[in-house]
Description:
single chain; SH3 type barrels; Pdz3 Domain
Amino acid sequence: MLSFMKTRRNTILILAGIAVALYLLVDIAFLVLEINTPPPETPQQAAGTIAADTTKDPIETYAVIVERNLFRTTDRPLVADPMDPGMLEVTTLPIDLYGTIAGEEGRGYAVIEERDKKRQRLYRVGDRVAGAVIVKILRNAVVLRVGEKDQVLKKKELVARGAGRLPAAGRPGPSPAPAPEAAPRPPARPPQAPPGSPSDLASLLTQARVTPHVTAGMSGKPDGVVISEIQPGSLFENVGLVNGDIIQEVNGKPVTGVADLVPLYRELRPGANLSVKVSRTGRQVVLNHTVQ
């Protein structure tokens, strides 16, 4: 009996020792995990981190959104181009525009006639005409600097077409018949002019598109002109030119811009011979033509 009681007491002591040992091991394990785990951020620390991130991009970074009104949050009108032809006053200078060739970096040309001189000339950006300075050449329009303000000179046929659409004043009704003794107004120039005459100079700008050509790797200066948008029946087609040809010489004279073509065009007369050297798809081609 004493032996049984002693064995039972030993068993209880052993189990108690094991329980204490397990408790200590678990306590040590939690202690190790607590040491290795970083403490969680407090709300104040989290707010401080977000505020630090927002300071990296100042409000000026997003000014473009307000400036362009991307979300339509302002009624402020956008800034318009001060040289927009539609926003400029039409000039009253005694000059007429007969055609333009728009180009980049001031390489455009315009054919303008001074009415008192009855002479057409080729003008570029920076040239003066009738006391005004040409500041921009557009398609069918030229921006002029008259004194301290800009005005627009539009192509003559466009101005006449716009004037024809103006409503007639007074009560509508049949127009009165012209008086029999009234003589017709003589035309300002002959209805048909031979090729090369000053009055026919503007037609050169409507027969094809001419742009300067610069060979890659060269000095950057034009070494010819590229012909495109050739009109059927035009002088360029009759010579034998095709779209994409690069005109390099005409009658032995180098061509680097539209200004080089105009004097040659003026010299053309029926029976005159024309020799044009072009680069076509990398090959040199010489075109010979006799003006009819």
